[in-house]
Amino acid sequence: MIKILIVDDEQVERDGLQTILDKHFSDIVIQQAKNGRIAIEVAAEFEPDLVFMDIQMPGLSGLEVIEKMKSDHPHIKFILVTAYATFDYAKVAMGLGVVDYLVKPSRVKEIVESVENVISKMISERKENRQQQNTLEKARSLFETDVVTQLLFDHVHEVHLEELMDMLDIQATEEKFVMSLIVPDGFESCYTAVKEKVSSTGSGMVGALYGRQLPIVVFRKPDLSFRTQATLLSREILSLSRSSENVEWFIGIGKVYSSIHQIRQSYQESLIATGDTKIPARYRFYEDLPALTPGFDERTNKKNEELYFEHIRNGEWNEINRNFTELIDRFEQEGKKLQQTQQRVMELFWIASRILSEMGVDSDIPLYSFQSTDYRQLRAETNQLLERMQRLHEEHQSTLEADTVQQIKQYIIDHAHEDISLDAIGREVALSPIYISKIFKEQLGVNYIHFLTECRIEKAKKLMRDPAKSLKEITFEVGYHDPNYFSKVFKKICHASPTEYRKKLLAN
């Protein structure tokens, strides 16, 4: 349905034009206005797609009304209608973006052809806008998962986090926490449903699926307590599961933190909270867990947990072995029951398997072949499982090529204008997205998203030297889908808007 507004101070002219339009076009709705002031009021409520505008009217002229309407409703198309075919009017009309210029009295054929051309143009623009919107939604989804990965493992560049919140309409707040959803094989079909559920809250971002775990970064809502918000969201996510008798989803919830640099800590806590997935609620808060190593104060326990995660991610197996040995020795000396010690050791193994899974190491959750009967047997089984995990890790490492980082870097340079993601790069070099993020930062000193942005901005600067290219064209050509977002990122990186930068560039 096309909405048309006819603005003319002559009733006969308005009615005559409406008769012609009604006769030759279906699926149109027409309203009239006898002067510029009324036209502006009608346009605010009617929101027309096309306006026939007379120039000479009492009060505001047609050109003044067009300028006002253009400011309030940029999408409106205008056909200027006047009894005076002067060059000055035509020049001003062109400057205002008027799509056609009819001289009274106009022939029916001219009016019909003019409207047909405008409608055809509007249909093409709507189709293009829908395509651009679909492409933008896909790009946002890819960007969201990459930002979550960077937050959890590399600290995303603040430019991108700030603008992403704006793009995704997420209510970013100072306090934030992480939830880890543990799922069975075949979960991929439910991934979109979980993403939509989290997105509907307006306060969370979903990362990529790593093995059987899905991280979710949540911004705490000021009108809800942390535990209330996390509990409600957990229940909503778990309601999507098609659980069978033995296979169910489970959510671990890390503590809430204010600093962006503590997101990783909350993520590690959320993983620890998923150690035992048998409880009826199917979700657990980290803060409700007993310490993995009882007897230490909270700060010491936290430091031990962080070191353990880093040892595994860095493949420091001597340190990992020492962690297990010290734990078993300590529990034996304190006279702990063997079953309790084995449970603690199993929790450490479970965490190790989750971290290896992040890195792309295919490691099943290790289980003891039988119930140990004494501490000697427990140590022997523990050593066997550690050797197995170390072997899997080393086999994975041996498959990596020496120039992998350079391959990744070149891939980003060659494909920066496309909707690339850590997942896409991972498929290209057969590595997990998290591992790519890790080695990229370690060897090049910048995170992946920052490098991708620099590639795009540098290309944009080169394209700006061509005055024939519009900034909108450049936006799409360098890989962005939203001119406003491109402008904000460009200004943060270059300390000048694209328009300001280009003006200086072309002036030199």
Describe the model.
This protein is an alpha/beta fold and 508 residues long. The protein has three domains: 2-106, Rossmann fold (3-Layer(aba) Sandwich); 137-324, 2-Layer Sandwich (Alpha-Beta Plaits); 404-507, Arc Repressor Mutant, subunit A, CATH 1.10.10. It is built from 20 helices and ten strands. It has helices at 11-24, 36-46, 62-72, 87-95, 108-153, 158-168, 188-201, 226-238, 263-272, 298-313, 317-333, 338-358, 375-398, 404-415, 422-429, 433-444, 448-463, 471-477, 483-494, 498-507; strands at residues 2-7, 28-33, 50-54, 77-82, 100-103, 176-182, 204-206, 213-219, 250-253, 283-285. Strands 2-1-3-4-5 form a five-stranded parallel sheet, sandwiched between helices. Strands 7-8-6-9-10 form a five-stranded mixed sheet, with helices on both faces. α6 runs antiparallel to α19, α11 packs antiparallel against α12 and α12 (338-358) packs parallel to α13. The chain is elongated and about 105 Å long. The model has no long low-confidence stretch (mean pLDDT 83).
